[in-house]
């Protein structure tokens, strides 16, 4: 009997494939029943990605044992190698399994009986001898020969790819795309894998290259590292890198000193049209250098930035309008609807109505939405057609609900088809005015696609809060447009009276001004549960020093127990007896406050931490034996549903992925709390992740084939364990999308998501963990963005020290873009 071992221990199984339980032709995902050689009479389930697999094949699988929640013990293989059939019976089954067109079980039996042990040698080296077998004529021989050559080509490609460290999953994908040319293409340039296949990055491609035999200082390797550096900088929001930055990153990637050679490689790549260069006076935190320097772009970002700047400069004409008639219309509108604009709002509406391109900005509660609603009504009264759009589905839905007309996501607006947008210069949007909300999320590439679809006659209005986090992609479009002073910008600053009553808005503006808000705790003021829209639960996690002290002290206590043989109550002693019973035991200076008697009787880790943590005040969760993780879980599962209703949407927004309060850890905890595995509930395991019916999930990257985009959130509605697919219903439009197994890797659990992923969305209730463990990501604009995602209630969980750190810590990492300069 095979044991169930740790999923992290790699093992090998050799055996004969008895049955193909399932095989997906598209992605190669296979479920096999295999008879291992070293376990006579037993069959085991093996899951593997394999382009071709046949009953009777003798295989060697490398991988690890797992336990599927529904199907039990399985061997999950990441490598599969075809071996020579172990017996005549296995060979007959192998050849007659459909492997070779024209060879069924009877023909296979004749072939094996005729050639015996030489059968495979005949197929490999002298296949024309098959004509010796009764029933095989010239025509059938030609068909068998062609089928065998095709099988051998697939087998050789899979063997080659796996021998250089490529998993079966990617080996199947590579063969599907490159076909019989796979070996040639990968051998010539392994680094093309990083560009052609999502999930294979530079580091994986580099391992393949070194395995094949590329020299560490190969020019192909160095240019690939330069490309990777530019690509990685895009993920950090940069449009370009300087030569010095590229050299530093390439040196680190390749663990070599190539500083003196980088200029030559960059020059050659420029000559080969592999990148673009712009001379720029680079910006720093405080000032600018005097001399322009060469800044290196990927071609795509270079042309996108150029295009955005050139199009915006052209959209500068004044539109025909009558200020007096507009003022009169605004007065009538106020009288009819009761919506009276402030002076700055009215000025904005009058000005925007006469501009082809403008920006409306301001913080929460300053009236951007009301201003937009009145503007749309005015434009339609003037006979102008209007289209509304936003980067995300949630933002578009909210925009449409408030303004009272349909709003689309930008991708839907531009009608994405295949590999591009249907709307472009040749097929522009048919509208007089285009209004875009949440424009802080616009990256340079999406902005270029959008502006390609805007005709010379169309007016465009950008709306957004430039103080929020910038886009996930490269660029800082809204902030750069405002800073250029070329585009008319209207900044709303007055907080309206109804907004002033919202603590979310009040605290958000304080944070944006660099003031640490004084947020009350419901542990100190229980009445906050009934009506407050923002509060702070003081909490913390254990430090390494605290955990170490607790462990040492418990060990000391156990030693005392053994020495004194206390049986009824092992901790029935006082500090004095402890000190005398265990010589050399001294409280470290930082733990002089600890009550050892209380520590000895504390219940659980949280209770122990409550004793050890210094100056725990009565409104801290530690005082009640709850760590920050405990508080987040109880807020999500008990407290918020109790006070806000069972159906309210709760979203945890964490600054980071890692750490005890990061999204990865919290998602596992919350999934187990609100959607645990149970008999009859369908679920699917992909790698280390488990997805169940009912789970809240988020899509991680734009997938134009599925029509799902980075940051889309939904709920799993169905799981098919046999086909290894699942179905997700996405909010807010209730789109049902089916995911094949290889596409499921693009999903993550979304009980907790990063604040960056929440851009453009609003949730009824937001839980915001803020602890010093997040110090690398504690920035003012991050906390500001997270807080303003809450519509009804925002709850901070953590330390006020961490919140103050974030408020006083401005993100000084300037994005390297040139749009501001190009616009001027």
TrEMBL record:
Q: Which domain of life is it from?
A: Bacteria
| Keyword annotations of the record | ATP-binding, Nucleotide-binding
Domain AAA+ ATPase, residue spans: 354-494
User: What InterPro entries does the database record attribute to this sequence?
Assistant: AAA+_ATPase (IPR003593), Coronavir_polyprotein_1ab (IPR050534), P-loop_NTPase (IPR027417), RecD2 (IPR006345), RecD2-like_HHH (IPR029493), RecD2_N_OB (IPR055446), RecD2_SH13 (IPR041451), RuvA_2-like (IPR010994)
Provide a GO biological process annotation. DNA recombination
This entry's Gene Ontology molecular function terms read: 5'-3' DNA helicase activity; ATP binding; DNA binding; single-stranded DNA helicase activity
The yes or no answer to whether the keyword Ribonucleoprotein is present is: no
Naming one, the record's GO cellular component terms include:
exodeoxyribonuclease V complex
The identity of this protein, by name, is: AAA family ATPase
């Amino acid at each position: 009997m095979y044991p169930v071992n740790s999923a992290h221990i790699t093992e090998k199984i050799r055996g004969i494939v008895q049955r193909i339980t399932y095989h997906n032709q598209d992605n190669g995902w296979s479920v096999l029943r295999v008879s291992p050689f070293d376990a006579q009479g037993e069959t085991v389930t093996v899951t593997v990605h394999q382009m071709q697999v046949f009953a009777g094949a003798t295989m060697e699988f490398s991988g690890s044992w797992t336990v599927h929640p529904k199907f039990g013990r399985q061997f999950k293989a990441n490598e599969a190698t075809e071996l020579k059939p172990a017996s005549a019976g296995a060979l007959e089954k192998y050849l007659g399994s459909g492997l070779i067109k024209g060879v069924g079980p009877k023909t296979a039996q004749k072939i094996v009986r005729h050639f015996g042990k030489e059968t495979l040698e005949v197929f490999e080296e002298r296949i024309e001898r098959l004509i010796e077998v009764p029933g095989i004529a010239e025509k059938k021989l030609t068909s068998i020969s062609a089928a065998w050559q095709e099988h051998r080509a697939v087998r050789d490609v899979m063997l080659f790819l796996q021998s250089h460290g490529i998993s079966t999953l990617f080996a199947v994908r590579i063969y599907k795309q490159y076909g019989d040319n796979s070996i040639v293409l990968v051998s010539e340039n392994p680094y093309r894998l990083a560009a052609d296949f999502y999930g294979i990055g530079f580091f994986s491609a580099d391992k393949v290259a070194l395995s094949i035999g590329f020299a560490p200082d190969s020019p192909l390797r160095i240019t690939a590292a330069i490309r990777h550096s530019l690509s990685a900088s895009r993920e950090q929001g940069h449009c370009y890198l300087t030569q010095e930055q590229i050299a530093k990153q390439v040196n680190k990637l390749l663990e070599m000193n190539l500083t003196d050679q980088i200029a030559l490689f960059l020059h050659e790549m420029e000559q080969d049209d592999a990148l673009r260069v712009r001379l720029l006076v680079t910006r720093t935190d405080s000032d600018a250098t005097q001399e322009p320097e060469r800044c290196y772009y990927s071609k795509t970002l270079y042309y996108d930035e150029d295009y955005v700047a050139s199009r915006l400069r052209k959209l500068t004409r004044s539109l025909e309008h009558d200020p007096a008639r507009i003022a009169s219309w605004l007065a009538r509108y106020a009288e009819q609807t009761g919506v009276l604009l402030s002076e700055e709002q009215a000025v904005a509406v009058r000005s925007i109505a006469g501009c082809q391109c403008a920006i409306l900005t301001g913080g929460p509660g300053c009236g951007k939405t009301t201003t937009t609603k009145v503007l749309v009504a005015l434009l339609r009264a003037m006979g102008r057609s209007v289209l509304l759009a936003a980067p995300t589905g949630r933002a578009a839905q909210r925009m449409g609900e408030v303004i009272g007309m349909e709003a689309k996501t930008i991708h839907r607006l531009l009608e994405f088809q295949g590999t591009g947008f249907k709307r472009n210069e040749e097929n522009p949007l048919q509208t007089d005015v285009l209004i875009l909300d949440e424009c802080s999320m616009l990256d340079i590439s999406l902005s270029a696609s959008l502006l390609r679809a805007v005709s010379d006659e169309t007016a465009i209005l950008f709306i957004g809060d430039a103080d929020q986090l910038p886009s996930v992609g490269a660029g800082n479009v809204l902030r750069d447009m405002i800073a250029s002073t070329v585009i008319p910008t209207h900044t709303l600053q007055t907080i309206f009276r109804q907004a002033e009553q919202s603590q979310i808005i009040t605290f958000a503006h304080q944070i944006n001004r660099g003031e640490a808000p004084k947020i009350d705790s419901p542990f100190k003021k229980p009445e906050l549960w009934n009506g407050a829209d923002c509060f702070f639960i003081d909490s913390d996690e254990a430090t390494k020093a605290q955990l170490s002290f607790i462990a040492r002290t418990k060990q000391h206590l156990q030693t005392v127990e053994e020495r004194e043989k206390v049986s009824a109550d092992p901790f029935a002693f006082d500090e004095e007896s402890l000190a005398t019973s265990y010589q050399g035991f001294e409280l470290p200076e930082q733990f002089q406050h600890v009550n050892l008697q209380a520590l000895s009787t504390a219940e659980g880790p949280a209770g122990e931490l409550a004793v050890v943590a210094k100056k725990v005040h009565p409104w801290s969760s530690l005082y009640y034996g709850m760590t920050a993780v405990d508080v987040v879980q109880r807020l999500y599962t008990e407290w918020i549903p109790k006070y806000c209703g069972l159906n309210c949407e709760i979203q945890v927004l964490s600054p980071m992925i890692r750490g005890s309060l990061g999204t990865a850890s919290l998602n596992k905890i919350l999934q187990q709390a609100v959607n645990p595995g149970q008999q009859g509930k369908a679920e699917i395991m992909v790698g280390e992740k488990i997805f169940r019916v009912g789970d809240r999930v988020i899509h991680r990257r734009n997938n134009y084939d599925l029509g799902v985009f980075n940051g889309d959130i939904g709920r799993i509605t169905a799981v098919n364990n046999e086909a290894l697919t699942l179905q997700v219903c996405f909010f807010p439009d209730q789109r049902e999308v089916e995911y094949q197994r290889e596409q499921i890797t693009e999903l993550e659990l979304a009980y907790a998501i990063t604040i960056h992923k929440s851009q453009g969305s609003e949730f009824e209730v937001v839980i915001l963990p803020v602890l010093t463990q997040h110090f690398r990501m504690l920035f003012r604009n991050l906390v500001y963005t997270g807080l303003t995602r809450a519509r009804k209630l925002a709850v901070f969980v953590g330390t006020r020290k961490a919140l103050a750190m974030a408020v006083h810590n401005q993100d000084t990492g300037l994005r390297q873009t040139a749009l501001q300069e190009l616009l001027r």
